[in-house]
Amino acid sequence: MKITWLGHSSFRIEIADQILLIDPWLAGNPMLPADRHAEAIAGATHILVTHGHGDHASSTLAIAKTADIPILCIHELASYWAATKGVQTRGFSKGGTVALGDVRVTMVNAVHSSSVDFEGGRPTYAGSEAGFMIAGEGHTIYVSGDTDIMADMDWMGDYHKPDIGILCCGGHYTMDMDRAAYAAKRYFDFKTVIPCHYKTFPLLAQSAQPLVDALPGVNVPTPDVMETLSF
């Protein structure tokens, strides 16, 4: 299994017989060089979107059309995109699990908000925010999406038992490093924690070292953009 950070909260996950793009933000992403966009999405089979905000979903429609692959996200957003944007979608909701070849993706709760910008830049409701549990190749990956600490993490950790966590930790809009570390220690038994949603803008935390320091005994890699981690 391979996980590649595309900057911010965007990831490429090669797992079993699938290549999944998680919140792939290409155009406008200051962390991802334009000359590596094609490489980032090459061979992708599905797009998973946690919520509608532009720094997570604004490139989704273009990628789905170019690559001719489906978007998996909350039912309301999937229905809107399928009806109005001419893309393939597969909508589901929290607690639902979809099979993608040898991979299972379960939608779980997150605490944030979700909207998309329509004409004129007006934010419009886009269904609920979410996270994902992605299971395959003997691993379960928890993709937190944008969230704060929440009590649901207790049963999510106990029930799904993820060994890899992809956790937002930049603060201001999401958990910060201290809160992400607290959540990881209290609710999960991760072997690996991959930080995200940091460094992108001055408003966010610029270093994940506090998370590394707070999780002794846990592998906390801080990859460069387009660096691949193998499991």
Describe this structure in words.
- This protein has helices at 37-41, 54-57, 60-67, 75-84, 152-160, 177-187, 209-214; strands at 2-5, 11-15, 18-22, 46-48, 71-74, 89-92, 97-100, 103-109, 115-117, 123-125, 130-136, 139-143, 164-168, 192-196, 228-230.
- 45% of the residues are buried.
- It is built from seven helices and 15 strands.
- The mean pLDDT is 97.
- The protein is α/β, with parallel strands linked by helices and 231 residues long.
- The termini are close together.
- A seven-stranded mixed beta sheet has the order 6-5-4-3-2-1-15, covered by helices on one side. Strands 7-8-11-12-13-14 form a six-stranded mixed beta sheet, covered by helices on one side. Strands 9-10 form a two-stranded antiparallel ribbon.
- It has one domain (2-219): Ribonuclease Z/Hydroxyacylglutathione hydrolase-like (Metallo-beta-lactamase, Chain A, 4-Layer Sandwich).
- For the residues shown, what is the average pLDDT? 97
Name of the CATH superfamily: Ribonuclease Z/Hydroxyacylglutathione hydrolase-like
The CATH architecture: 4-Layer Sandwich
- Please count the beta strands (DSSP E, at least 2 residues each): 15
| CATH topology call | Metallo-beta-lactamase, Chain A
Task: Give a short overview.
With 231 residues, this protein is an alpha/beta fold. Helix content is 23%, strand content 29%.
